[in-house]
Design a protein that fits this description.
By secondary structure, this protein is of the alpha+beta class. Helices cover about 55% and strands about 15% of the residues.
Length: about 140
């Protein structure tokens, strides 16, 4: 019994020493002595990330704004209204069919000419072929 008692006492003392060492280690810990230090580091990291996120958002916004301006310009250049604004016209038959060639009309036929501002209602008097190929009977 004495031997068992001694072994048990020895084991309890070792456990107590182990816990005492752990307690000393934890009590010497920087986090417990100065809890504000890790918080300050984390705050600084959050501030840095917020600053970088703000700059990133600014750059992306500027980039998207430039892309929008570029695409808007391309879209405007393709717009039929922009074509009319540059001085071109769209000629149509009475049924709305766009006239692309003089051979699509007949003498005496009424056509509409859409301009940048307004329309003209005209009557075909004569058809002329391209590249000086002469007149043609429509």
């Amino acid at each position: 019994i004495r031997q068992s008692y001694d072994r048990l006492t020895h084991a309890v003392r070792q456990i107590a020493r182990s816990y005492r060492r752990r307690l000393e280690y934890v009590s010497e810990s920087v986090v417990l002595k100065h809890p504000e230090r890790p918080l300050a580091r984390h705050r600084q990291r959050v501030d840095e990330l917020l600053s970088r996120a703000g700059l990133n958002m600014h750059h992306r916004r500027r980039s998207h704004k430039q892309m929008l301006a570029l695409l808007t310009g391309k879209l405007d250049s393709l717009s039929p209204l922009a074509t009319l604004e540059r001085g071109y016209a769209v000629c149509q038959k009475q049924d709305g069919q766009v006239i692309k060639e003089s051979t699509q009309t007949a003498v005496g036929e009424s056509i509409d000419i859409k301009l940048h501002r307004g329309r003209l209602q005209c009557v075909v008097e004569k058809g002329v072929l391209p590249d000086g190929q002469g007149d043609h009977d429509i």
